[in-house]
Amino acid sequence: MTGNIRHVGIIPDGNRRWARRVGVDYATAYRLAARNVIGFAEYLFEAGVSATSIYCLSKQNLERPSQELEVVFEAARELAVTHLPRLRAKHRFRLVVAGVPGRVPVEVERTLTEFVAETANENDHRLYILLGYDPVEEVAAAVRGAEGRPFALGQLSVPEAVDLVIRTGGGSTPLSNFLPLQCGYAQVHVLDDYFNDLTIESLRSVLAKARTEAFALGR
User: Fold this and answer.
1) Cα 188 from chain centre
2) CB within 8 A of 92, min separation 6: which ones?
3) Which terminal Cβ of the chain has fewer Cβ within 10 Å, N or C?
4) Which phi and psi angles does 10 have, rounded to 5°?
5) Greatest CA span in the chain, whole angstroms?
6) Tell me: the pLDDT tens digits for 72-108?
């Protein structure tokens, strides 16, 4: 018997280091990462995970040089236009974008906003995309919207506790402001693989280990 892992968060680190190692440009690395993100979300949904959060871009990442951000935004556009519809063809899920509007190109934001609206009533699975995300701003927005009611996790843009965080890239292991309130009791698994080297087999192994650990803890 194994424990219940309902919500998995992924910090897909190491894309630029992977590009330098294999000798491709950053644009190629980020496009592959966008495709892989959806492949892993598909596997997790099929494995019984009900929610997945993907850390695409933090508010601090927006301070990078414009030429670096351009390739990230292009990968985000491909994610929105090509890969999300592919996932939707196989699974019913609600898309939520956590981040402050206006920080990504208009085309990307418009496409994601339309997808959010189209999937608003889906409840089988949830996919949270963190884009230009900052936890302080997430909390501030929730408090403003609470209108005097006591603050609760369910008022956040990502309103579910995270059970498992998978961070690729090895080396330094900060959570980089990834859903700090939601991850208060999450297991954190740091993998040496760069994100584009991560395989379904590795993901399956981590999920199985996390479920076993969750069961041992009575969760």
Assistant:
1) 14
2) 122, 123, 124, 125
3) N
4) -125, 125
5) 54
6) 999 999 999 999 999 999 999 999 999 866 778 888 8
